[in-house]
Design brief:
With about 300 residues, this protein is mainly alpha-helical. It has a domain at about 10-180. Helices cover about 65% and strands about 0% of the residues. The chain contains 14 helices and no strands. The chain has helices spanning about 5-15, 20-30, 35-50, 50-60, 65, 70-85, 90-105, 110-130, 140-155, 165-180, 185-200, 205-215, 220-225, 230-250. The chain is globular, with a radius of gyration of 19 Å. The N and C termini lie far apart (about 60 Å). InterPro entries: MPAB, MPAB/Lcp_cat_dom.
Length: about 300
């Protein structure tokens, strides 16, 4: 493997994961593992739909039923804005305002917010441990924790654990307690699988749906009420991702970051040119929106 393939890893190793967490996260997500971070965060969000209190709210909004692609694009672009420019930059603060305004309309428990935040840290790290072209450096793990902890504070999330292991333990405990089947889990899960399949030609969509099920672990399958895919499906997907990782070891390091670059975005073509974070996000709930899901003034 060419020595220069490790130059960004070596740079990350010289940085401080607490003080330099934003720089490390930008290098990792934008240059070292951009495709992996995108896929891992897709599955991280998918994982949160296994919690009935989360899926009930999402089902009530109708966004996944009526506008799944826009819902996906809004979330991914807003989070990319914060990561690309920094949470205290003008565009980062603007993106956080859009996120906080959207969440502030609804009655969302602090524990649910904490759980979603935790998936953004640990699910990509787990993915990279299995499918990254190299394992994540310890500084990348800690930097992701410190980065999302700062983002969470700016989102008004309370009681964020102070340590990496402590927050991971919270995530694992929450999944054991809250991953139970509900009809809204299944609805949102089916809408999401349909969204993933829609990115491919019609002839491939049945295979994509099967492949997605093959990537889900037993707790997710049970919470969604999905039947498991044949074992060979998951094995084939795992083999393909590991083969990709092996091939990438011989690629030169990426010279420019693609974090926040989405010129072929399905909802916002050419993003970010001529767009601002305030152009993103869902509309306010309709007047007849169920009051049980709205935040009380």
């Amino acid at each position: 493997m060419p020595r220069r393939r490790w130059e960004l890893r070596d740079r990350i190793a010289r940085l401080d994961p607490d003080r330099d967490h934003l720089e490390i996260y930008q290098l990792s997500a934008g240059r070292e593992f951009p495709w992996d971070y995108t896929r891992a965060l897709e599955f991280a969000l998918f994982r949160t739909y296994c919690v009935p209190s989360i899926s009930r709210l999402l089902a009530a909004t109708g966004e996944f039923r009526d506008r799944p692609q826009k819902r996906y694009d809004d979330t991914s672009l807003l989070m990319a804005e914060i990561a690309t420019h920094g949470y205290d930059s003008p565009r980062g603060r603007e993106a956080l305002k859009v996120v906080n305004r959207a969440h502030g309309r609804f009655a969302i428990s602090n524990d649910d917010m904490l759980y979603v935040l935790s998936t953004f840290i640990y699910d990509p790290i787990e993915w990279l441990g299995k499918y990254g072209w190299r394992p994540p450096h310890e500084h990348e793990k800690l930097a992701a924790f410190h980065y999302y902890r700062e983002v969470g504070r700016r989102m008004g999330i309370r009681e964020i654990p102070a340590g990496y292991a402590e927050f991971l333990a919270f995530k694992q405990r929450y999944e054991r307690e809250q991953f139970v089947y509900s009809e809204t889990n299944r609805q949102i899960g089916e809408y999401t699988v349909g969204l993933f399949a829609a990115w491919f030609p019609a002839v491939l969509r049945p295979a994509v749906r099967l492949g997605v099920r093959g990537m889900l672990d037993e707790p997710m399958l049970r919470a969604f009420g999905f039947s498991p895919a044949p074992r060979w499906v998951g094995a084939l997907g795992d083999l393909g991702l590991r083969a990709r990782a092996l091939a990438l070891r011989f690629f030169p390091p990426r010279r420019t970051s693609i974090l926040g670059v989405s010129p072929r975005n399905r909802t916002y073509p050419g993003y970010p040119a001529d767009y601002h974070p305030t152009d993103l996000g869902a509309e306010a709930p309709a007047p007849d929106f169920p009051a049980e899901h709205l935040r009380r003034a």
